[in-house]
Design brief:
Number of domains: 1
Strand order of the largest sheet: 1-2-3-4-5-6-7
Number of strands: 7
Structural class: alpha/beta
Oligomer: single chain
CATH topology: Leucine-rich repeat, LRR (right-handed beta-alpha superhelix)
Length: 217
């Protein structure tokens, strides 16, 4: 039987009956230019089909869209770990409630708004690992992490996220790398990053806070 291309699982997974036992899937093909590949895949799947065993799905640096994620989270209802970093994802609120068991979510370098981020966090009561580096950058070739005008996460937004995560109480790992608009203000009252570290960060097992911070919290 032919092997599944693009899949990285603990064991080699073959097409056929064993496919239903697939636990991890990582799409590692060449960068996609459109959402066509996902659309073709979805068009061939019965609308009642559910792959209940899949736990880990990595779609990093692909052209997956929110539209495709609505379908994918329906097909894979028991996802625990999802990576859509460096993709065209903008509105996770459209599909995240269909993945209520998510424990890890990577949204690094996606063009989602702070409001979308808050809705996403609120919708995932089991979330333990969150990566939200370089929010707003997206996948445009004309946008880089050095372009601060593209960033969407500000100190005021971080304050809202901090309150949500503090109330959430389950977070173990948080990455806020390269959100270059954070902590540009140096006044004590506006040190949102310090408040985040105090209320949420110190409780995490893993932290990644890389900012333009000159003062100590």
């Amino acid at each position: 039987m032919p092997r599944v291309r693009g899949a990285q699982a603990r064991k080699d997974i073959q097409l056929g009956s064993s496919l239903v036992y697939l636990v991890s899937f990582s799409y590692i093909a060449e960068p996609l230019q459109t959402d066509t590949t996902f659309s073709k895949f979805l068009s061939g799947v019965d609308e009642d089909f559910r792959h209940v065993n899949l736990r880990n799905l990595k779609l990093r640096q692909t052209a997956v869209s929110d539209h495709s994620m609505v379908a994918l989270t329906t097909i894979f209802p028991n996802l625990r770990r999802l990576d859509v970093s460096f993709t065209g994802i903008r509105k996770p609120s459209l599909w995240v409630k269909q993945a209520p068991y998510l424990e890890k979510l990577c949204l690094t370098s996606t063009a989602i708004s702070s409001a979308e981020l808050c809705v996403t966090i609120h919708s995932l009561p089991r979330l333990k690992i969150l990566a939200i580096g370089a929010l707003g950058v997206g996948t445009s070739p004309n946008t880089t992490i050095n372009n601060t005008s593209s960033m969407t996460l500000h100190d005021d937004d971080l304050a809202l996220v901090t309150d949500l995560l503090a109330e959430h109480g389950r977070l173990e790992s948080l990455s806020l790398v390269s959100n270059t608009k954070l902590s540009l203000m140096r006044s004590r009252e506006s040190r949102a990053l310090c408040r985040m570290i105090s209320r949420v960060g110190r409780k995490c097992k893993v932290r990644a806070f890389l900012f333009l911070v000159a003062t100590q919290c």
